[in-house]
Structures are given as structure tokens and as C-alpha cells.
Amino acid sequence: RDREDNGYITFKLLPINTMVSFLANEDFLQNDIRVKPDLDGLGVLGDIGWYCIRGILWAVDYELPKNVVALHHPVKNQAGVLLACGASLYWADGKVATFHCSFLTNLTMDLTVVGTNGTIHVTDLVIPYEEKSAPFSVASKTNFAELSTGWDPHPSKHVVTTDLPQEGLMVQEFCRLVQGIRDAGVKPEGKWPGITRKTQIVVDAVKASIDNGFESVDVAS
Fold this sequence. Notes:
Layout: E1 3-5, E2 8-11, E3 13-23, H1 26-31, H2 43-46, H3 48-59, E4 67-70, E5 75-76, E6 82-90, E7 96-102, E8 104-115, E9 118-122, E10 133-140, E11 143-144, E12 151-152, E13 156-161, H4 166-184, H5 191-211, E14 217-218
């Protein structure tokens, strides 16, 4: 998103890329509910593709794209359930994002957000390397070093630490929300249902693009 200071553009968000995958074993590919059309018909798209799309939406402050176009050559099993797929997302102001999700490739959980003056890179987007910490790197106004022999400045590495694993924090937050409704008359939190709905809207648009021969599908708000 462009931000204007003193009449000129100081930052513009450009490409966003996410990839989440893991190499499923034969038992998973034959018997897991995520490969059964009558149990979880969206397959990989509805499973780890959800996290790819959620990561993209997070990077754009949950602004829905204008349209999506599924990538050609998705992989399906014999029952027609998606095992690997991807798509490109487009916004009216020029932002572009691409994702790929797969049950058939090595464990990868990457998110890269690139702007005119910086890059954010997360390499353990869904499940952190360690239960109580999560790293990410930031490159700001990076260029080639003298004679193009390196980078200057180097990307900076950061680690977010927590007292509890992320699953514990999720349960803790859920309990806090429920307790507020029960004990303090607080209205149900609208943030998470809203984000969930937007994510599913994009998931459905990607599936529609795949089903319609990889045509562009407008995203309903």
C-alpha cells in the first residue's frame, strides 16, 4: 500500500510470495481425510493453502484482492482431490501475490513480502522451528556492496519468544474471549470471524479458477 509523506510516495508494497508444503507418506495420501472428496474435498487448498492465503492477507492488512488466477497444472489424486496447486492474486492498486501449496514436496513454510525499501522473510510461517520462538529476517534499503561482492547492509535477524507454545497461546486467547462474554458482558470478538471469512472467500475463488480452466475469477467482498 502506498504511503504518502510530504507529497511523495515513500513506500510501495510489491510482490508477496508464500509456499507451504510437506512430503506426505503413502498412508496419508491414501487414507487421510484431506484426500477424500466426501470428507475434505478442497484437499491441499483447504488445508495448507489456507495458511498461504492467510499469510498474504496479513501482509496487505486483510484487504481482499480484486481477482485471482489459479496456476496451471495442479496435481490431483484419482478421486479428483487437490494434492498440489497455486494461484496469483491481484489488487486494483498493482499489488500482486503468488502462493503454492503441496502435499508432495519437502517441508517448507515460507512467506516473503517485498517493498521498494525493504523485505520481510519468514521461514516457519505455520509451525515454528521451536515451540516457544519464531524467527524472521528484515532487509532494509539493501543494495550491493562495493564491486557487487556482497550485500550492504546485511538483513537483520529477529526472534520472537513466548512463554507458551503457540497452541497454548491460542487456547489462552480463546478462554480470554469467552470469559469476557460470560463475566463482563463483552460482545463476541469480530476480528477473527472476519479474517476467517475473507480467507475462505479467496480459497473459494482459487478453487473456482481451477474448476473453470484457470480463468480469472473476481473476488466478492
